[in-house]
Design goal:
alpha+beta; Arc Repressor Mutant, subunit A; Beta-Lactamase; Enolase-like, domain 1; 5-stranded antiparallel beta sheet; 3-stranded antiparallel beta sheet; 10 strands
Length: about 350
């Protein structure tokens, strides 16, 4: 655990230098390279730095691939590094060029599906990793529009469009025949009264109103209720919309063909990606979450890191935005980009009334 890592200020300086050199070059880092960076600062000669690196290796923070090679950071070291970045009192603003690029990408969007799709694209572009955007369950199952078509006696086709852009069609077999005007009235009632409501809430509210409405709305309410009971508003519980872009970006950081095959298989299994984000990114969290060591959840994701954050609309969870990339990524910049995009939904969309 990161909390258990206790190292001296000097060791922290050397470890940070090793990590940032490794991120920049991808090569094992020698004591001479670190010494050149410090230029004998605070009495840290090459020999001193070499001793510090040996100590960091004994603590499980540095690995030495070969006897004569320099050191590379371990997953434990990257966790420690991220913890230091997250806990730093220094404020790091997102680079102006990235901010402008993100703002241009999101200009003119009008739906949550567009927001999530463009999120995966821009995060892949600026991080050189995999951009991922996942709609929340509530967003997936929020009603945008419903339409009923009478096919034959007692048979109706229901087409439901959710706010996440999912189109669900259902063949309904009714106990009584409904006329075309009755179906139009039922669809109009649902679209006007429940636009933006979650499907579960709509069914609950219809049951409540059925108990109350015993006047001129009685026939309409019975028609609507029968259509819904027969499955017009049955949601696919296991389905969440996910957008993934930039898998090819990882080619530059991975040379092992078998590792590439396993990694691509893991990334292409979108349900596993959904499970990964739901496991690690809590809708209630207020800050960006960084997870090093994804292979503990999905073995094919060895040496990959998740940087993710929930995005909100009012008090509701709108979805999850994230980057999956190699441990050799620019952490601070990527964390800033994920945080910036996570807050954009509040600026682009008005909270529901």
């Amino acid at each position: 655990m990161v909390a258990e890592v206790r190292i001296s200020p000097r060791e922290r300086l050397v470890l940070t230098a090793v990590i940032e050199n490794y991120i920049a070059t991808g090569e094992p880092v020698s004591s001479q390279a670190v010494a050149r960076q410090f230029a004998d600062k605070d009495g840290m000669s090459s020999a001193t730095i070499r001793n510090v690196m040996v100590s960091l290796g004994d603590s499980g923070l540095l690995d030495q691939p070969h006897t004569s090679a320099g050191r590379i950071p371990t997953a434990k070291a990257f966790r420690f590094y991220v913890e230091q970045l997250s806990g730093s009192s220094r404020q790091f603003a997102l680079a102006q060029a990235w901010r402008e690029q993100i703002d241009d990408t999101f200009a003119g969007i009008s739906s949550s599906q567009q927001f999530l799709e463009r999120t995966s694209h821009v995060l892949a572009l600026i991080s050189s990793g995999v951009g991922v955007a996942l709609a929340s369950v509530a967003e997936v199952h929020a009603l945008e529009h419903i339409h009923f078509t009478r096919l034959t006696v007692g048979r109706v086709l229901a087409v439901v469009v959710t706010k996440a852009g999912i189109v669900m069609d259902r063949m309904l077999i009714l106990d009584r025949d409904l006329t075309h005007p009755e179906l139009e009235a039922s669809a109009r009632f649902l679209n006007e009264n429940f636009h933006g409501w979650s499907i579960d809430h709509i069914r609950g509210e219809l049951s409540r109103r059925m108990e109350q409405e015993r006047s001129e709305y009685d026939r309409l309410m019975h028609s609507v209720n029968e259509l819904c009971l027969k499955g017009a508003l049955n949601a696919d519980k296991g389905v969440q919309t996910i957008f993934v872009e930039g898998v090819a970006n990882l080619l530059a950081s991975e040379l092992d063909r078998e590792r590439l095959r396993q990694m691509f298989a893991a990334l292409e299994a979108k349900q596993r990606m959904v499970d990964l984000l739901n496991a690690y990114v809590d809708a209630r969290q207020q800050t960006v979450r960084v997870v090093v060591g994804l292979e503990e959840t999905i073995p094919g994701m060895q040496n990959l890191v998740l940087i993710g954050s929930p995005t909100r609309l009012g008090n509701e969870n709108f979805g999850t935005v994230a980057v999956i990339g190699p441990t050799r990524m620019q952490y601070q910049e990527t964390m800033n980009a994920v945080s910036y995009i996570a807050q954009l939904s509040e600026k682009i969309f008005q909270p529901p009334q």
